[in-house]
Amino acid sequence: MLAQKLHLLRHNVLSFVSSRTGSDLTRRQYDVIVVGGGHAGTEAAAAAARLGAETLLITQKIMTIGALSCNPSLGGVGKGQLVREVDALDGLCGRAGDSAGVHFSILNRSKGPAVWGPRAQLDRERYRQFIQSELLSTPRLTVLEGSVDELLVSQPNPEEPGHHRVTGIRLGNLPQTSHNKLGEFWPIPPDRAGVTESVDGSHPILSSSVVLTTGTFLSGSLFMGQTTSPGGRMGDAQSCAGLSYTLKETLGLRVGRLRTGTPPRIVKESVDLSLAQLQAPDKQPTPFSFLNTHTRCKPEEQLPCYLTHTTPGVERVVRESVHLNCHIQQDAKGPRYCPSIESRVLRFPGRRHQVWLEPEGLTSDLLYPQGLSMTMPPELQLRLLREIPALHRAEIRTPGYGVQYDFVCPTQLTPSLQVKSTQGLFLAGQINGTTGYEEAAAQGLWAGVNAGRTALSLPPMALSRTQSYIGVLIDDLVGRGVTEPYRMFTSRAEFRTYLRPDNADLRLTPRGFEEVGCVTLRRYKKAVSVRDGLQEALMALQSVALSSTRWREKLGNISLSENKSTTLNGLDLLQYKDVSFEMLASAFPECLSQYFEYSQRLKIEAVYRPHCEKQSREMERIRSEESLSLPSDMDYLSLPVSLSQEVREILDRVRPNTLGAATRLPGMTPAGIIHLLNYVLRTGQRNRHTEHRNRSSQKEGEKGQLCASNIPISQ
Asked: Where are the beta strands (DSSP E) in 51-182?
């Protein structure tokens, strides 16, 4: 099936590139144009099209749509939650991961299920093929190979906020695309032999909304040693400078500069894996997608990863080559949580750093050395690698390099990811200062949703940080901005016991279908069926109630207190660590055995239900206390409560009059609001008690004085 789709895609791409010119494209107006075919762009284009918008995806190379530019993996702690949420909203990357995964594991298993991190190593070719085949089968979506030179900007709609309005894009003048170059990837039909055509860049393409997902290509520069060249990815054309000029000069947006990098790719046969520690995958792969019960890669077909470490020799090579490495000397901020080996050595001297040797695919002869991103000259990269015992004979297929690129300060965006000053312009991915496939995909989906809704004259939608990790991500970006590439962690979500990877479908799929419009009927029906089944199972568990003594008799050796005389139902009992749903179902098969398929979800729900109910009550308190007055003289900087320094500075600077006003401040978190609410209520009660005691003492004193003068006291 996949091969048939790809064959059709090759035919469609050739027909489109060979038979259409820029003037043909201007004869119609698209609802949405998406610029860039990476993780953000593909999700944005697919989401807008699912919503019903006529969508055009423009990418510099059709063959690189869905390419994994850096590490061949998906998910992880915090990131896996994003993948599952994107999937719950009918996005692509979760199902692509299930199709392309070759090594599946759940990170953080030693901790609670709320912070588990679903992760997979991917086959690069399988992932790319899946994304391309999915885009092909998406109605109302057209793909064009080209480069965008500038945005078309006009006067704004006076009835909406903003200083400008985007009306489309203008293509850059590309070198002619010969069929031979394209034919390396898409075979040319015989009747097209000798034909050379290109998309004419002299004509605009009109649209109601534009989504920019330029990744590292916005004024991108590549670095290797002391060599610098324009570009956003090795082997690809540089981006047009006109687009960056439009953003900065025409629209007046604040733009910053960030950097990232990628490690060299190592020939697998040149590595002595016997000197590295084998890391096996999970015996049973866990799919990312709620639509899948199993992955394409069978358990026995999975590939292992290997763990090794840096040595003092690695540090020596880094220090000796600093003067030959212009990328590491630049001021642009790099990713704190995925730094280059040069940054790690210089920041943490004398330490032993982990290096993961990861497969790039089932048939690939390369290994990806996670943790060895580097930008020194190629000959020194080889020397550094060979300082690691397992890599002492390593050969490099492609060297590592660094990238610097422009990003737009994301505080200039609304929660719908639209630029505040420019109607119809949406940004997603690394252009907003983030790093990682998962963060890009999440933004891309939501930007595509809102670009489509705007084009179809529907109101924009927002996700709060109490509803999803996507909401946390967007709220952090638009409310706080970035000073370094942003990465998602579970610690960023205050309500992570509710925002779990297991319940993303229940949280988001119904809303995605009923309110947003980006979820298909098939997925919606499945989510509703699961929701109803879980609800029935929970009611069945609650219907089984016994005393502690009777439970011990039924289940045997479980750690129930001997002194507990209260009655416990099945859901209460499932909260205990050594009690499983299977145990309860075997004791009461007549009412529980039909719910075996939900056993893990029921266990997780039981464990976290008390925490979620508490958080729900706290959020209800916030809503009910919105009118609570905040003291005007409150010293937020030294307040004896758990508030981050950033939140303290926001409160001290703005000094909101009420709790409701505080909740609406950019950068404020629900956790901070709860701590503030508790403090004000607690100190307010204490002050009232103090005032009451003072008034009582005063009255007693007055009574004494009156009695002493023999004046009757009215009772």
From this structure: 55-59, 73-75, 101-107, 117-122, 141-145, 148-154, 164-171, 177-178
Task: Kindly state the tokens that stand for 441.
Answer: 């995909």
158-189 b/e (C-beta count within 10 Å ≥ 16 → b): eeeebebbbbbbbbbebeebebeebeeebebe
For the chain, the maximum distance between any two Cα atoms, rounded to a whole number of angstroms, is 122
Cα gap 134→1, rounded to integer Å: 12
- Residue 663: the pLDDT is 84
pLDDT of residue 714: 30
Q: What is the mean pLDDT of the chain?
A: 86
Distance, CA of 120 to CA of 286 (rounded, Å)? 9
How many Å apart are CA 617 and CA 620, to the nearest integer? 5
Model confidence, pTM: 0.86
Rounded Cα gap, residues 291 and 95, in angstroms: 8
User: Is 606 in contact with 571 (CB distance < 8 Å)?
Assistant: yes
Three-state SS at 266: strand
Q: What is the DSSP string of 463-517?
A: --TTT-HHHHHHHHHHHH--SS-B---GGG-TTTTTS-GGGHHHHHHHHIIIII-
Per the CB < 8 A criterion, the answer to whether 237 and 401 are in contact is no
- The single residue listed with the structure tokens 């009059």 is 657
Rg of the Cα atoms in the chain: 29
Which strands form 401-408's sheet, in the order they lie side by side? 227-230, 221-224, 401-408, 255-262
Q: Hey, how many other C-beta atoms are within 10 angstroms of the C-beta on 688?
A: 10
347 CB burial (10 A radius; 0-12, 13-18, 19+): exposed
- CB-based burial label for 49 (10 Å; 0-12, 13-18, 19+): buried
Residue 715 pLDDT > 50: no
DSSP 216-261: T-TT-EEEETTEEEE-SSTTSPPPPHHHHHIIIIIS---EEEEEEE
Positive or negative CA dihedral for 267, 270, 274, 276?
A: negative
For the segment 305-323, the average pLDDT, to the nearest whole number, is 95
pLDDT above 90: residue 650: no
| Cβ neighbours of residue 96 closer than 8 Å, sequence gap 6 or more | 66, 74, 127, 130, 131, 134
Report residue 44 as tokens. Answer: 């944005």
Tell me, what DSSP letter sits at residue 518?
-
Mean pLDDT of 216-234: 88
Buried b (16+ CB within 10 A) or exposed e, 200-209: bbebbbbbbb
Report the Cα 104 to chain-centroid distance in Å.
19
- Count Cα atoms within 13 angstroms, Cβ side, for 494: 22
